[in-house]
Amino acid sequence: MFTKPYAITLILITLCLWTAxxxxxxxxxxxxxxxxxxxQPETHWHAGTYALPEVIGSGVALLDxxxxxxxxxxxxxxxxxxxxxxxxxxxLFRQQPDGTFVDVTESAGIGHxxxxxxxxxxxxxxxxxxxxxxxxxxxxDVFYRNNGDGTFVLQEAGLSxxxxxxxxxxxxxxxxxxxxxxxxxxxxxxxxxxxxxxHGAPDYCNPKIFEPAADRLFRNNGDGTFAxxxxxxxxxxxxxxxxxxxxxxxxxxxWADFYVANDGEANQLWVNQRDGTFAEEAxxxxxxxxxxxxxxxxMGIAVGDVNGDTRPDLLLTHLTGETNTLYVVxxxxxxxxxxxxxxxxxxxxxxxxxxxGFVDFDNDADLDIAVVNGRVKRGPVLKxxxxxxxxxxxxxxxxxxxxxxxxxxxxxQERKETLSxxxxxxxxxxxxxxxGRVEVSRGMAFGDVDRDGDIDMVVSGLDxxxxxxxxxxxxxxxxxxxxxxxxxxRDALGAQVTLRTDSGALTGYVLSGTSYLSSxxxxxxxxxxxxxTIQSIEVHWQDGTREKFPGTSTNRRVKVYQGKGVSF
Amino acid sequence: MRxxxxxxxxxxxxxxxxxxSIPLFARADIDIPEPADLGLVEEKLLLKAIEAxxxxxxxxxxxxxxxxxxxxxxxxxxxxxxxxxxYRQASRFAPDEFKWFYFLGRLTKQRQPEDAVKHLSRxxxxxxxxxxxxxxxxxxxxxxxxxxxxxxxxxxxxxxxPNNPFSELWLGEIAxxxxxVKLARTHLERALRLNPGQSEAHVLMAQVAIALGxxxxxxxxxxxxxxxxxxxxxxxxxxxxxxxxGVTAPLYAERGRRYMSEGDYAxxxxxxxxxxxxxxxxxxxxxxxxxxxxxxxxxxxxALEVLEHLLSLLDKDIEVQKExxxxxxxxxxxxxxxxxxxxxxxxxxxxxxxxxxxxxxxFKENKTDGGSHSQLTSSDYDTFFSNVHANLAMVxxxxxxxxxxxxxxxxALDHVPSQLSVHRDLAGAYWxxxxxxAAEPHYKQVITHAATDVQAIYRLGLISxxxxxxxxxxxxxxxxxxxxxxxxxxxxxxxxxxxxxxNIPEAIGIFERVLELEPGNKVALDKLRELHESK
Lengths: 568, 535
Fold this sequence. Notes:
The complex is a heterodimer of chains A (about 575) and B (about 525).
Chain A: H1 4-25, E1 29-31, E2 60-63, E3 72-75, E4 91-95, E5 101-103, H2 105-108, E6 116-122, E7 131-136, E8 142-146, E9 152-155, E10 165-171, E11 180-185, E12 216-220, E13 226-228, H3 230-233, E14 242-248, E15 257-262, E16 268-272, E17 278-280, E18 301-304, E19 313-316, E20 325-329, E21 335-337, H4 345-348, E22 353-359, E23 368-373, E24 399-403, H5 412-418, E25 424-426, H6 432-435, E26 441-447, E27 456-461, E28 466-471, E29 479-487, E30 490-491, E31 496-501, E32 504-509, E33 524-529, E34 533-540, E35 546-553, E36 556-561, E37 566-567
Parallel strand pairs in A: 29-36
Antiparallel strand pairs in A: 1-28, 2-3, 3-4, 4-5, 6-7, 7-8, 8-9, 10-11, 11-12, 12-13, 14-15, 15-16, 16-17, 18-19, 19-20, 20-21, 22-23, 23-24, 24-25, 26-27, 27-28, 29-30, 29-33, 31-32, 31-34, 34-35, 35-37
Chain B: H1 2-28, H2 44-59, H3 64-76, H4 80-93, H5 98-108, H6 113-126, H7 131-143, H8 147-160, H9 165-177, H10 181-194, H11 199-211, H12 215-225, H13 237-244, H14 249-261, H15 265-273, H16 283-295, H17 300-316, H18 318-323, H19 326-346, H20 350-366, H21 378-398, H22 402-415, H23 420-432, H24 436-449, H25 454-466, H26 470-483, H27 488-501, H28 504-517, H29 522-534
């Protein structure tokens, strides 16, 4: 017979073991695509014809187009490889009160039949509903103005981009209160080009054999139209092969800059000169190349404050043989490639990353990383690949990394010296639905779709397939707060939100256009761990003003409006 | 009892049989790694090479060398993953062989840095003097955040290969990652001294300059960083072993170019010849083949044919034209004509040589801005056309057309004012033309950068003599003698300078020295007679 203290100890140990077991065994994400009503293709995707657009993929957006406070899904689509003229309308899925989705493309009037690539979401006319911009290959991009009644109307509005558009993002770069648009363009593709890979077999071309296409910048005239200011702003001066773009202040001067992920050449940081023009200074800020000064095949971009210094850090996804690169801003305002010191570099090296995001999926108050993968050049068929004979050579699993918030390899002084207070551990095995499939994935968007306080993910595949992953990460006593920052009656894209707490500051960014070709929920989601009270919410609005809002309790969604806080 | 003993014997016999059979079974079931996409390989030579290397492994599965060779075949053709187990086997069967641990470490460096540290550390216990092993070990340690150890190995690599810019570059990168900005600057400046064209160092220097608040300097480095990096070769003799296992076209070409860079043109030709056929459309291969043939010194005629074929491809082949910009094609043509000029000159066809060089120079006029994607900088163009002018000048000079020669030497200097050899040649041409005043500034340029150039100093001494600046002449002739103690003519000229200065005893001593060096020297005898008479 045990004495009482021993019995209590035994019970505690058992409980601990049980909890630990539960944490280990629970999948972090569960695929719920079919359960939510998304159609699933029954056959494998058509074999490729080695035309470059076939491997670029397309994006997906999480948006609330009908203002019912439920996230809807816009899936950008493209025709099969051997049927370039086949109709492949983009699809809009509305979330119903029971959480399932229904295809409303036709009634909403948003089913453009092009060779869809990327998507940008923003309320360009400040009328309280989001409008939609879709980039295309081989056809002009399209802009849909939201009528506010669940329908859209296709408008030209001065947004004419005939180049091969990829990622795009809305942002108020000139601080005039309305959203402007930046479109990253890729290459001047020649469909007749024939390329061969290793050992003579045909394969997709290296984009370097095609001339780059200059990006485009459109300024909002404030009257429902846009002006092409690409030349005027200086953006046309340096054409590059752009695939990803984000807009936020990366130089610390309070003005929105554009950062463009370029494929196989220097990334570009267009620094806002505050007079409507931009200067390209990526090399100066350490954001053009990796730590070794070499260009990489950049695709997607994630933005977040990974080390808690209230400054934005960046993750770029890259080709196989290159790491996905983590840029952490130093005290000198120069970004430093910290990839190799944060633990995930070796694991992602064999894969080609596209969509990506910093997401605190376990709400433990630090940012984790999700990356979707899929090759652009043929490689060995990996175990579990089931995407058809042709695409199996391009299929790869996705990856999930958890931020441990500490480093074991080096001491605290070293951490201070190297800016590295973060360390990522590969937890892919704990999310088999997300990482267990060996497929070719491209776009990825993030948002709390089921409004349960954690971030869910939707992924678009190269086979025009959507996969929906519900966050099931067990997070006992992990609190959260979602902040929607609003200006002019719309999401304040580009604003920075900082929560002040007893345990320090947590910072997030109001951004929709991140990842790859995709658009995410613009609310800033904070995982809080054991933090129970928020002392105050500070917002650095994109027009340079700063306001403080009162503290709040946790595990709720709050809205803060510009002009309603206390300036500081 | 006897029965039991018999059973024990039987059992022992059985176990013995099992034991001696194990290697045989192992041989039969030997698991040879191979690339997953091998089925897609279309190149027969490559398939044959793989089959041969695998066959050797099957026949001698305990032989480290055959495993290593199979690893080399895979690695040279870009298959790193199946190469790793091959090197692992090789290191197992030859645990004291440096190279297998080295390759194993090198290949696992990024994917499994902990393993790489183990393998490279083992390699360095077997040969601590191999600099690339220190560099790769440092790289693996850096991935693991072991900065101090990484720095130690980079410092060691630096000691072993002082001219290797990578040690300094990576030391600079680590210092920058640790926010030790000034230290980073020191290392990067050293790296740039060793290889000014290494864009990676310029990238990091731009960040260092920003961190130090010097945006102008940062912009300068950023500008240079946009140029394609000119890599200094990491001296790694063992990599040759891997390259030699390659049987695909890019590997023949790479080997050919490496032999060229080592000056072994006969071997370079042999490599390029494996690639040459009517179907070959890689104009760089044709170009390098032609140049290698030329520099063998014995195959001028074939070199000429190859360069002419290259020109016809550049002129007529649509596929070739599509792959290159107009500027690149023009530049290649200019280079081809320049080399043809050299061939004509070396085979005594000076008129043809002049014609070829003149055609090469015509492309200078056609040059545009190079486009944003040209791999060639203005400096590349200037250096090339400077060389063509200098070559043409040399041909003119040797055919006695000194006026034309001088004009082209001057054009060469207009392109690259710092070309020392051209200053020397131009001064020489002026000298031949007896225009000593014009020669003087060029000889002065020469001795500014080459303080021991005897001919330049001697001729400047003679010019001083002619200008009656005898003190300067004495100083210059003494310099010549200090460098070359047996320079008879310098002694003679020094004697004359002393004589003109009225220092007869010194002059006599100098002319006597001339006679020691060259008994019976008529000028010295005459001068001595004259000096003694004047006493």
